[in-house]
Structures are given as C-alpha cells and as structure tokens.
Amino acid sequence: MKKKQSKKIVSFILKIVFICLFLLVILLFYIQILFKGQTDINNLENRTANKIPTFSLTKIINNKFQENTEKAVNDQILGSDYFKIYALQIRNFLSELILDQLKSAPYKLVVDEYYNFNGDDYLLAAPYNDNYIEINNYQIKEIAQQYESIPLKNKYLYLINDEKTVNLERPNNNFYDKLITYYPSFKTSYLAINSYEDYKNYYLKNDHHYNYKGAYQSYIDIVKLILGENEKVLKPVSEVHFDYNIYGSKSTKAQFFKYKEKFIAYKFNMPKFSTYVDGEKKEYGNKTALFKNHNYLKDKTISYGYFYGWDTGEVIYDFKQPEKKNLLIIGFSDTCAIQELLASHFNKTYVIDLRHFKDFDVNQYIKENKIDDFLLLSNWFSSTSNDSYLWR
User: Fold this and answer.
1) pLDDT confidence of residue 227
2) The dihedral of CA 204, 209, 210, 211: what is its sign?
3) What pLDDT is attached to residue 75?
4) What is the DSSP letter of 214?
C-alpha cells in the first residue's frame, strides 16, 4: 500500500511540475511578445507568419482559438526557425541513412510524402494507383457528363501528364487512354512522358508545375489539336536564364536538400493585344518587368505564379483578329504559362478557373461571348476527378 501511495504522490508531483513548466513557457512566450513584438514573416517557409488570435468565446467553442494559438506559438516563439532547422536536419539525416539501405528501389522516400527517382534531385509525388479511374469512376463520370452536354461542335480535352499520372518505373499513358472514354465528343491529346528523362525535361525540381519546356510543348500540342498540323506556332526568340532560385510547392519540404534550380523562361515576340484580369485591364503576371530588368526582384527567389500570373477567376485576351474564332478555356494553374500563347491564335480567348466561382453557367457564358471552340485543360489528373471542375 505504501508503495502505491508513493507512486501516486510522485505522479502527482510530476504533473504539478509539468503544469508549472508549461505555464512558465507560456508566460515567457507572452513576455517575449510584449517586448519583441510579433514576427510578420516566416522566413524559413517563405510565408506570412501566424499571429496570436484575438480572444473569442465562439472560437474557443469551435476549437479555432486553440488551433490558431498553437500555430502562432510555432511561428512566434523565440528561435522557432532554428528549432525547425535542427529538427529537419536530424530527420533528413536519418532519412538519408534509411535511403542508403534502399538503393535498389527506384522510388525512394525523401521527406514526408515526396520521393526521388534513382537518387536524382527531383522531388516527386507518388504515382496514382493503377485502379485510380475505377475507384473514382462515379465522380469522373459526373464531371465528364456535364462537359459532354455543352452544345458546341468543337470541344477539346488536353491532359498534362505529371509524376502522378505516369509511373516512372513503367511509363505509359494508361490513364489518358481510360480517361478519354468518358469524353467521346471531345478531340483529345496529352503531354507525353515516355521516360524519366522526359519528366526531367518538362518539370521543375521542387514544384508541381511544368517548366518552360513542358509548357511550350503543351502549347504546341494544343495548337495542333485545335487548329491542325499546318498552323504555325510562335517560336521563342531567346531562352532567358534568371539569377533566381525557383520557390515552388515542394520547396519547404526540400529546404535542406539539394533540390534547387534557377528559373528559365522563353521570350516571345507577341503581337499587340489587350488583357483583362477579373474585369481590370492590366498585364497578367510579371513577364514584362522581369524580362526588362533581371534584377527586378530584390531577393533571389521566384515562383511560377509570380512570373506567369497567379490563379484568378477570369482572364480575357483580345488580339483583335475578328477573322479568327473565340476560344474558352477552363483550367487550373498550368494554364497560366500557355494561355497567352494560345490566345495569339484566336480573336478573343476567355480563361476561367472554376475554383473562384460559386455559380458559373458555362452554357450561358458561351452564348454571351460567342464562343466557337472550347478547351478543357486538365493540369493534373485529379483535376478531372474533383469538385473544382463541376459548375452545377
């Protein structure tokens, strides 16, 4: 009995000590905030830092206050960047030790959900399961049926293959072959990736977007798909190498690995045109400024979206070529890199990202803007099997 009582007393004391230490840490944290102020930017992850939330009974009830406070502590506590750096370095060191034992496997887990292939310095998401289409059949069919109902003769589907749709151990276009059976009234094509070398040629190392070569190949494929083999495509006048490191969607996870590369883009001589971004007449993206001044950005990082244009609801291009047709494109972020090039082949081109609309009547939009050709651009395979592509 005495031993049990002693254990209870020790356990109680330890709990008291733990609670006191916890309260002391919280007290020191708020004292630090009082004198130092809150950090605005999380430099390690290149994002806005989370700040201490305002007190609200509603937020406490729905647990938002607790969640936001935890995020704020992670960003605002003194030395948080260093703690994260050391934790990631230890984790990455252990990962490298594990990877040394798995050299026989082409796909190697590098960090969290990302892999490399044959030890190369490209971060890859895992490829989809071979039965992905069968598993998601209902939703893929639901999305396809609404596009099949569009009363236009000229409808086109272009699939931008990536590391998810192509298993690099056995490259094939099986997903494409299965997908197009859902779109019998569409003419279709795809970005062909027949080897790992193809993937490296077309994609950025630490981002899910394609690079300038992948974008340009997609542009050529789509022009041939819609306008035929005899349509002349725009050719680059130069290949511009910027002294900026790409900062992409996988960059935070790749912070302490060697997955870095400089940003490169093709420059074109474009005919005169007007651009309207969500109704405002202005340039989409920052290509003009960056081509004009290679030191335009003060820091040494650049993102795909900053150069080509951030995701937005509607972009309209007017090339004032009334003898040519009007094109409507529905797509995601990979559309940004090629929509200006595609638009040069048409009179007016309308680009819609359905993620920015609660209600969007495609058929009404087609009537109002006298659309002749319709392009559904899938920038990765999940785009054709999630609710973002539904408009009704």
Assistant:
1) 98
2) negative
3) 61
4) H
Distance (Å, whole) CA 197 – CA 127: 16
307: amino acid identity, one letter: F
pTM of the model: 0.74
Q: In this structure, what are the phi and psi dihedrals at residue 159, rounded to the nearest 5 degrees?
A: -100, 120
* 213 burial type by CB count under 10 A (0-12 exposed, 13-18 middle, 19+ buried): middle
Token pair for 188: 């279709």
DSSP secondary structure of 152-197: -SEEEEEE---TTTS-TTS---HHHHHHGGG-TTSEEEE----SHH
* Strands 301-302 and 238-246, sheet pairing: parallel
For the purposes of burial, counting CB atoms within 10 Å of the CB of 328, is it exposed (0-12), middle (13-18) or buried (19 or more)?
Answer: buried
Residue 240 pairs in a beta bridge with 265
Q: Distance (Å, rounded) from C-alpha 139 to C-alpha 378?
A: 15
pLDDT in tens, 15-30: 787 677 767 766 666 6
- Write the single-letter amino acid at 32: Q
Residue 202's SS3 state is helix
The share of the chain scoring above pLDDT 90, in percent, equals 48
Band of the pLDDT at 186, cuts 50, 70, 90? very high
**Euclidean distance between CA atoms 80 and 73, whole angstroms:** 9
Q: Which residues contact 233 (CB under 8 A, 6 or more apart)?
A: 219, 220, 223
pLDDT at 363 over 80: yes
Is 253 in contact with 112 (CB distance < 8 Å)?
A: yes
Confidence at residue 102, expressed as pLDDT on a 0 to 100 scale? 42
E-state strands within 300-369:
301-302, 314-318, 327-330, 348-352
